[in-house]
Write a structure and sequence with these properties.
The protein has 9 helices and 6 strands. The protein is of the alpha/beta class. It has a 6-stranded parallel β-sheet, with helices on both faces. Helix 2 packs across helix 3, helix 3 runs parallel beside helix 4 and helix 4 packs parallel to helix 6.
């Protein structure tokens, strides 16, 4: 029996694209009397197992919120730790990305990221460009509003030089100017650690995503939690404003 059948999941009712707000690393650590950074370290274990399981289930794309533009407000030692962790992850997991045939991609602003991080991002993009399996997209130095600002700048520049008529701008023009151009929109948005908010994630793209929030902190997010989200998603009736009659 394959993995989907074993989990009782109907392949037709699987989300094509799952986006996750990986929240609660700090709380996970504090509840255990540890430093916040221990939570980030443990969060990497969840990242690894979620990627592997989504790939095995045949999910097309997984987009993980790793660092928001607002996260620069955190204390510098925590930011430094997160950047070092990201760098180490990119290097250490590269062989796994290749073994799992994952196509690596990234969304967010490059400006503001250190050169050592950008170099490892670029290397992962390069080596995995021809892979055929799941797309793994990391949102790094990302915010939905910044993304929209960057898209508007691109379109305004095209209008200024005369290659775009304002009256020709439609939803597809905007979608194609976002970092996520050519990616499918998320069908399912998962948030861990219980907060009922979007925190500036994929604002344009989640217009019709199904939302699923768990009280579990990100380091506790495991295969069972993922399956629960997928079962709940399969039961949702997606109407997109119409009527399913
Ligand atoms: C999510 O966990 C990781 C990042 C935002 C980088 P947090 O660090 O936000 O953990 P909490 O929300 O403070 O518990
Ligand atoms: C969202 O979590 C950002 C990431 C998971 C990278 P935050 O912890 O930054 O969100 P808020 O501050 O609770 O809204
Ligand atoms: Mg948080």
């Amino acid at each position: 029996m394959n993995r989907l059948a074993a989990a009782g999941l109907d392949p037709v009712k699987l989300p094509r694209h799952i986006a996750i707000i990986m929240d609660g690393n700090g709380r996970w650590a504090q509840e255990r009397g540890k430093e916040r950074i221990q939570g980030h370290l443990q969060g990497v274990v969840s990242v690894r197992r979620t990627i592997e399981e989504c790939g095995r289930l045949g999910i097309g794309q997984l987009t993980l919120y790793c660092f928001s533009t607002e996260n620069w407000k955190r204390p510098q030692p925590e930011i430094d730790f997160l950047m070092a962790l990201l760098n180490e992850y990119l290097i250490k997991e590269r062989p796994e990305i290749m073994r799992q045939d994952i196509r690596f991609s990234v969304i967010g602003r490059r400006e503001g990221l250190a050169d050592f991080v950008l170099a490892e991002i670029d290397e992962s993009l390069r080596v995995s460009a021809n892979n055929q399996g799941m797309t793994l997209c990391l949102a790094i130095n990302y915010s939905g509003r910044t993304e929209i600002v960057d898209a508007v700048r691109t379109l305004a520049e095209r209008a200024r030089v005369g290659t775009l008529q304002p009256s020709d701008i439609d939803e597809a023009t905007i979608a194609d100017a976002l970092y996520t151009a050519a990616m499918p929109e998320p069908d399912l948005l998962i948030r861990t650690a219980g907060e009922m908010r979007i925190s500036n994630y994929l604002l344009w793209q989640i217009a019709y995503a199904e939302l699923w929030v768990t009280e579990k902190c990100w380091p506790d997010f495991d295969e069972a939690a993922l399956y629960q989200a997928l079962h709940d998603y399969a039961r949702r009736e997606r109407r997109f404003g119409g009527l399913n009659i």
